[in-house]
Write a structure and sequence with these properties.
- There is one protein chain.
- β1 (about 15) and β2 form a beta hairpin.
- By secondary structure, the protein is α+β, with helices and mostly antiparallel strands.
- The protein has helices spanning about 1-10, 40-55, 60, and strands at about 15, 20, 25, 30-35.
């Protein structure tokens, strides 16, 4: 989550109407940001964020 906030705050061109753009290179001399929206791999990212947010929920961690 900290990385997402850092990228959002530091490189605003990576964020668009629908969220982060599909690809970007943040190297100092090679800054590049995609202009494309491709959502095929975004679903798993949302699941991973949800898992991160609930990592301390004992019912989920214990499978109950």
């Amino acid at each position: 989550m900290q990385m997402m906030k850092y990228v959002y705050d530091t490189y605003p061109k990576t964020w668009s109407k629908y969220g982060f753009l599909d690809g970007y290179n943040l190297e100092k001399d090679k800054l590049w940001v995609s202009k494309e929206y491709i959502g095929i791999d975004k679903g798993i990212s949302m699941v991973m964020i949800e898992n991160y947010l609930h990592r301390n929920n004992l019912e989920i961690c214990n499978g109950k």
